[in-house]
Write a structure and sequence with these properties.
The chain has 153 residues and is an alpha+beta fold. It has seven helices and three strands.
Length: 153
């Protein structure tokens, strides 16, 4: 879907994948969120660095039913943005280890733990961000399998 608006000279994209927490195996709670963070790091070519060199910005989030990635660049860089996004999805290879990301996700899960009673009441349990003890046990092959199943071009 495209919508032109010439008031602001930027190009924005949003790409959603059916890769939310409801699609993850129960034994790997937090897997969808972990994969979103790992994929956000981009391809071997360095998605974030390339986007910054274009004058752009991006972010991503994971929900129960999807993972969504968005990016904005100056309009003159729109074609390059689409090429970078395609490259990020096509040539992604997760690192062997991800201690920094795992540490961040575990801290986030602990911080959000105070809302657990509300998540359970709304039947939104387990939480999207994962449970710290589950996050630390997610193997690389589970990350790859989930990504291959959920992130289809």
């Amino acid at each position: 879907m495209f919508e032109e608006d010439h008031r602001i000279p930027v190009v924005a994209i949003a790409v959603a994948y059916p890769a939310g927490s409801m699609q993850e195996p129960t034994e790997y709670n937090g897997l969808a969120h972990l994969v979103e963070h790992l994929r956000f790091e981009g391809s071997a070519a360095g998605y974030e660095e390339a986007l910054e060199s274009l004058g752009g910005d991006s972010n991503a989030w994971t929900g129960p039913d999807q993972a969504l990635y968005w990016a904005v660049v100056p309009s003159a860089q729109g074609k390059e943005l689409l090429q970078q996004e395609a490259e990020r999805i096509r040539h992604w290879d997760p690192p062997e280890e991800w201690p920094e990301i795992l540490s961040f996700l575990q801290e986030e899960a602990i911080y959000r733990g105070s809302t657990d009673i509300f998540l359970r009441a709304l039947n939104l349990w387990p939480p999207v961000q994962g449970i710290p003890t589950f996050l630390s046990k997610i193997p690389r092959d589970a990350v790859i399998a989930f990504a291959e199943q959920s992130y289809l071009p």
